Amino acid sequence: MTGSSLTSGSMLDAAMADLGWLDMLDEVPDIAIPLVFRLLGETGAHAPVLNDVVLRAAGYPGGGTMPLPFAGGSWVVWERTDQASCALDSDLPIHRVPAGNPAPLAAGRLAAGWWLVGTSRAMLSLARQHAVDRIQFGRPIASFQAIRHRLAETLVAIEGAEATLEVAGDVSDEFACLLAKAAAGQAALTAARHCQQVLGGLGFTAEHRLHRHVKRALTLDGLLGSSRELTREAGDILRVKGSAPRLAHL
Q: Which SUPFAM superfamilies does the entry mention (predicted)?
């Protein structure tokens, strides 16, 4: 998969359906979801298959669409067409709708989290390569401590989010999936901030790929609850319960 128009959107959606994506989602979701959504993030491709994850979790057949909650209490629909309409990401056919019906979101948050991790790794890869190639004062900027700290902090955030997603996938717990999506969103925002700084002015240009991943990260962070909203929601849950559940045995 790549980010080109030939391998994204409705064409990729159809190709995945032909390959048995929906059967994989039913039979081996613990393999299918991390594999597919992480690859979407790493390659910069997109397809409306997040709909399938949420639909299946709600007991509906895949292949359609349903309103998804977005940051700020709004709702959006990710259409299965190539008519892009998202202000944040001009490649995505997402548009706002008045409202939607509550549905189980744990599996969808897990999928979006893996997508965010893939996108974060793509940004880190671009920044690392630039740091190795870019020469200043007679040596690669990768040798500068400030650059290394930014790259290291990004890697730590990504690895932590990925570990959280793996635990959430193992326990299949709604609260764990909420925390995993929040961690993945925060990692993506951290990656966007640090990688933009490493790339400098180059990262702002339309010719460089970083800005596409940054926009994708902002959109995905907002879907099914932003990292800020989910962190606040998790705090409210813990305050009401009075204790934190054990999500992993270390």
A: Acyl-CoA dehydrogenase C-terminal domain-like (SSF47203)
**Cα(193)–Cα(87) distance, integer angstroms:** 20
Question: Tokens in use for 218?
Answer: 């902002």
Nearest-angstrom CA–CA distance, 65 and 136: 50
Q: How many domains does the chain divide into?
A: 1
What b-and-e string marks burial along 22-57, b requiring 16 or more CB atoms within 10 Å of the CB? bebbeeebeebbbebbbebbbbbbbbbbbbbbbbbb
Angle at 80 between CA 76 and CA 83, to 5 degrees: 80
**pTM of the prediction?**
0.93
d(CA 176, CA 192) in angstroms, rounded, equals 24
Supply the DSSP string of 194-222, one letter for each residue. Answer: HHHHHHGGGGGSTTSSHHHHHHHHHHHHH
Instruction: Give domain status of residue 30, yes or no.
Output: no
Whole-angstrom Cα distance, residue 231 to residue 234? 5
Q: Please give the Cα distance from 186 to 22 (Å, whole number).
A: 29
**pLDDT tens-digit readout, 108-167:** 999 999 999 999 999 999 999 999 888 878 888 788 999 999 999 999 999 999 999 999
